[in-house]
Amino acid sequence: MQFQIQAKVGKARACSFTLAHGNVVTPIFMPVGTQGVIKGLNSLDVKHVLQTNLILANTYHLYLRPGIETLKKAGGIHNFANFHGNYLTDSGGFQAFSLGENVKHEDCGIAFKSHIDGSKHFFTPEKVLDIEYAINSDIMMILDDLTGLPATKERLLDSVKRTTKWAKQSISYHNMQKEKYDIKNKIFAIMQGGTDYDMRKRSASELIELAFDGYAIGGLAVGESSQEMYECLDYACDFLPDLKPRYLMGVGTPENLLEGIDRGIDMFDCVMPTRNARNAAIFTNHGKINIKKTCYKNDFTPLDSQCNCLTCTNYTRAYLHHLFRANEITYHSLASIHNLYFYITLLKDSRQAILDQTWQQFKKQKLDDLAQIN
């Protein structure tokens, strides 16, 4: 995979790499389209309104519904969802982790019960890749063993060992498939180790030897404090190769993203923009507002006067307040468009600040703005 670093300020970096469905520039925020769709939006919204070309879909959910046979017949997720930008699919490891008592980790894979109908399933490293080939995702995350925090050293070591074992199986299987077929899918490994320095170093070292296309930092934002996460990122990024993309999974707030960029992260995803939008929480350049509050009933200003999204250039806080109170579906679409546009623009502006060598000033100003209380 062609990967270039265009500029750096400290550890913060502006990079680019090429996937089957177009070039990607970083830092980048990937909207989450779990079921092959971003909640409240359609593919034309993603292309023309959000103007991004890399989104995330979920292997676990698409496997259960609509199923790999339907995806194969459709010719993959790009045709099925009519979005011809790039897709990243996660491995299903987090969903299995979140199922609690309905999941069992074994040395050869993950046994779980469907949250839809209770049916039993088993994910192996190879099966996960077969599902992702059917989806035809541009970046395929491999199966990993995720553990919540806090965790014992014994559990972290078990997680690292199992993740490495599955990584070896995954890269071997993927290389065999590449020999047989014209496969353009890229494959990323996921570092584990909690917030333990030695475990993170070991996990990174073992995965780098296997020469993946990129590397993710998993197992964070699962119970630790933000400060603990930042301290972990300080050394975890240093363990990863410079000339490969670095992806922090499932994180987080705008402040988290800025701090992650500052420590060398290139890629982010999180459900927070859309989930918060559905619950009346709107991100702005001057902090977060709760649009359901009565004070917005007669506020005829945009959600964010500094935002150029479809919502802010056409509708007011009063209207969004009304839609939320009236439980109108249109609210979810307009609020989600704004929050996602805010996240995407924050990272585009971060990239420009790195290119302009003004990153530190930009980051400080943004953190100061975000700390304001509305």
Automatic annotation (TrEMBL):
Residues 11-369 form the tRNA-guanine(15) transglycosylase-like domain. Pathway: tRNA modification; tRNA-queuosine biosynthesis. InterPro entries: TGT, TGT-like_sf, tRNA_ribo_trans-like. The active site is at D90, D269. Zn(2+) binds at C307, C309, C312, H338. Pfam families: TGT. Binds 1 zinc ion per subunit. Its EC number is 2.4.2.29. Residues 250-256, 274-278 are annotated as: RNA binding. It catalyses: 7-aminomethyl-7-carbaguanine + guanosine(34) in tRNA = 7-aminomethyl-7-carbaguanosine(34) in tRNA + guanine. Its cofactor is Zn(2+). Keywords: Glycosyltransferase, Metal-binding, Queuosine biosynthesis, Transferase, tRNA processing, Zinc. Catalyzes the base-exchange of a guanine (G) residue with the queuine precursor 7-aminomethyl-7-deazaguanine (PreQ1) at position 34 (anticodon wobble position) in tRNAs with GU(N) anticodons (tRNA-Asp, -Asn, -His and -Tyr). Catalysis occurs through a double-displacement mechanism. The nucleophile active site attacks the C1' of nucleotide 34 to detach the guanine base from the RNA, forming a covalent enzyme-RNA intermediate. The proton acceptor active site deprotonates the incoming PreQ1, allowing a nucleophilic attack on the C1' of the ribose to form the product. Homodimer. Within each dimer, one monomer is responsible for RNA recognition and catalysis, while the other monomer binds to the replacement base PreQ1. Belongs to the queuine tRNA-ribosyltransferase family. This is Queuine tRNA-ribosyltransferase. It comes from Helicobacter trogontum.
